[in-house]
Amino acid sequence: MLRSWRVKLKLLLATVTLVVLLSWLYLFMGSLEYGRFLLLPPCLGEQPSRDVERDALASRVRRVEEENQQLRRQLGQVQAEGGDGNPQWGASAEDGDLPGDERSNRTACPKQRTVHKCELLHVAIVCAGHNASRDVVTLVKSILFHRKNPLHFHFITDSVAHQILQTLFQSWMVPSVHVSFYNADDLKASTGFPFAWSQPCCGSLQPEVSWIPSKHYSGIYGLMKLTLTKALPSNLSKVIVLDTDITFATDIAELWAVFGKFSDKQVIGLVENQSDWYLGNLWKNHKPWPALGRGFNTGVILLLLDRLRRLGWEQMWRLTAERELMSMLSTSLADQDIFNAVIKQNPALVYQLPCFWNVQLSDHTRSEQCYTEVSDLKVIHWNSPKKLRVKNKHVEFFRNLYLTFLEYDGNLLRRELFGCASLPSPPSNQLQQALEELDEDDPCYDFRRQHLTQHRIHLFFLQYEFLALPNPTDVTLVAQLSMDRLQMLEAICKHWAGPISLALYMSDAEAQQFLRYAQASEVLSARRNVAYHIVYKEGQFYPINLLRNVALANTQTPYVFLTDIDFLPMYGLYDYLRNSIQQLELPQRKAALIVPAFETLHYRLSFPKSKAELLSMLDMGSLYTFRYHVWPKGHAPTDYAKWRTATVPYRVAWQPDFEPYVVVRRDCPKYDQRFVGFGWNKVSHIMELDAQEYELLVLPNAFMIHMPHAPSFDISKFRLSAGYRGCLQTLREEFHQDLSRRYGAAALKYLTAERSL
């Protein structure tokens, strides 16, 4: 037995010596530039900052020292027992007996798990209103730019954001991106494009949080993240939750991999709040909601939904909110206050993310401690109400990063994820099949390719007040434009007081220039009944009839005035048209009201205030009938001679190449989108109205005046290129054939009239 005791004592002394040497080695190597590579295993998907590594190293040294002390105590026990005892040779406590932080810091890369390249990642975003719908696009671009995995976006929206984002994603057609919508305003949830889930939501979301008073500028939607366990599908086990004012600077899969680090009890991943808000020392009598230390910011959240549901999350946060509201009366930071109050009571639920996963750029932030190099940045959070105007030492760098994605061409993000099986959506399949059927040797290939181009569309780009119940005779001015006609907007708004629907053909960068222009304009910023729909540029031709159809489809009034952006309507035309619709009993008849068109060659014009003034200017030569000198056939059927003396509407017959500007019902035929660039885009539409037996009625006291401008690029191509004109003729013939198929013998007159010319 004595011999056995001596053997054990020697073994224990050797172990103590080894531990002391290791402690000294850890301390020594921690001061070396490359010591961390010798002591810490490399991380996959995440590289901790030096502060994190230093903390991990210090924690490991403390653990070794504790083990050293425990060994010394055991050695004392062995010596006291004279070798007859049974010392416990396990030098460290079981993981289950350690606090969560100590377990996670035992190595720099605990529970590291790589994300499979084809694993589907789920992202949830609450988005309501026009501004948030515009902001979230920049967030989505930053995610798509870096991503290497299929994504499923879950949007909790109001009806406005739902319409905007559903149209955007359907027209964007990004491969391996799924989108689902959950309407916060009613009982229904709809599935976006491509279809992923079709089951209804679990009930209305607004009543879940509408009882909570909130001072936050986000209103009731700032509380919606509390309802995600109920709002999202029950078979969804985990999700990354993001605010709309987030910008990613890395692959979101790196953040998804952090789920693998959660302990069995942790259900929420959050970054510590980087301001002093929850410390309660920002001003006198500042009383924030309870929080653990500095509290946590909810701009970036990792949620283990299945565990939260098992824990009874809905009841947990509700009871906490009810208790705290008895003294706090309202929330100041919306859902963030309630999340922090729950965590204060249940600290074991939270996994603290490294702060570079949510670099918060609010005033008085400590965000500079999250990074030392550009490569350290993962996620930037513009969580100040000042947004890009926030004060920060490195704000210029962050602003430039944000602007890069703000103006980035979203078309470039339509890239395939090679190596991942993807289920293409039916629209995508049909488009691909149509493209494959095109003959690249066809002289008109470019025209046909442009017709099939899928343009991204962002509806209601600026604030728009929808009509609760439109007047049965109300009418919307419908037009399209590009950046070079932007200067016409203010003048049109001064001439037309009614609703306007505009389709703007722009690049991502130009759309931001337009936004700044509109916000700076007193005239435009004062209007809430002008709808701006961005159709993003792609292809070499101006898709004029696509633009018209987008503007037409998104009107609300029963009638539409189909015009062009370079025409100014007469003062009072809006009221005159509404009265005419009523007097002519248009709801009971199929008619197109023609507004006679005139033009001036003067950039500065004393606009006529009446028909009498216009006729006087016409006689003096300062005004002309529209295009009388270059394209008289386009408007000659209006019969300007009769109009001079007319006092009541009169009917005119269709004639070849007639292209007047008309007021029709909103459900009129769409424009034929095969016609792009210059030529036959309006002529074809009027022809179809006539084929559907619309009466053509000229209004006797209405007029509009075309303002001069430089020739468009497309009209220059038409004039200079015989090939362009030849293709236009081919498209005209094909249109005639289609018209004959749809309307039979009634359409033969159009072909006969064309041939006679």
UniProtKB/TrEMBL annotation:
<comment type="similarity">
    <text>In the N-terminal section; belongs to the glycosyltransferase 8 family.</text>
</comment>
<keyword id="KW-1133">Transmembrane helix</keyword>
<keyword id="KW-0333">Golgi apparatus</keyword>
<keyword id="KW-0328">Glycosyltransferase</keyword>
<dbReference type="GO" id="GO:0046872">
    <property type="term" value="F:metal ion binding"/>
</dbReference>
<keyword id="KW-0325">Glycoprotein</keyword>
<keyword id="KW-0812">Transmembrane</keyword>
<dbReference type="GO" id="GO:0000139">
    <property type="term" value="C:Golgi membrane"/>
</dbReference>
<keyword id="KW-0472">Membrane</keyword>
<dbReference type="Pfam" id="PF13896">
    <property type="entry name" value="Glyco_transf_49"/>
</dbReference>
<comment type="function">
    <text>Bifunctional glycosyltransferase with both alpha-1,3-xylosyltransferase and beta-1,3-glucuronyltransferase activities involved in the maturation of alpha-dystroglycan (DAG1) by glycosylation leading to DAG1 binding to laminin G-like domain-containing extracellular proteins with high affinity and in a phosphorylated-O-mannosyl trisaccharide dependent manner. Elongates the glucuronyl-beta-1,4-xylose-beta disaccharide primer structure by adding repeating units [-3-Xylose-alpha-1,3-GlcA-beta-1-] to produce a heteropolysaccharide. Supports the maturation of DAG1 more effectively than LARGE1.</text>
</comment>
<dbReference type="Pfam" id="PF01501">
    <property type="entry name" value="Glyco_transf_8"/>
</dbReference>
<keyword id="KW-0735">Signal-anchor</keyword>
<dbReference type="InterPro" id="IPR002495">
    <property type="entry name" value="Glyco_trans_8"/>
</dbReference>
<comment type="pathway">
    <text>Protein modification; protein glycosylation.</text>
</comment>
<protein>
    <submittedName>
        <fullName>LARG2 glucuronyltransferase</fullName>
    </submittedName>
</protein>
<keyword id="KW-0808">Transferase</keyword>
<dbReference type="InterPro" id="IPR051292">
    <property type="entry name" value="Xyl/GlcA_transferase"/>
</dbReference>
<dbReference type="GO" id="GO:0015020">
    <property type="term" value="F:glucuronosyltransferase activity"/>
</dbReference>
<feature type="region of interest" description="Disordered">
    <location>
        <begin position="76"/>
        <end position="108"/>
    </location>
</feature>
<comment type="similarity">
    <text>In the C-terminal section; belongs to the glycosyltransferase 49 family.</text>
</comment>
<keyword id="KW-0511">Multifunctional enzyme</keyword>
<keyword id="KW-0479">Metal-binding</keyword>
<keyword id="KW-0464">Manganese</keyword>
<dbReference type="GO" id="GO:0035269">
    <property type="term" value="P:protein O-linked glycosylation via mannose"/>
</dbReference>
<dbReference type="GO" id="GO:0042285">
    <property type="term" value="F:xylosyltransferase activity"/>
</dbReference>
<dbReference type="InterPro" id="IPR029044">
    <property type="entry name" value="Nucleotide-diphossugar_trans"/>
</dbReference>
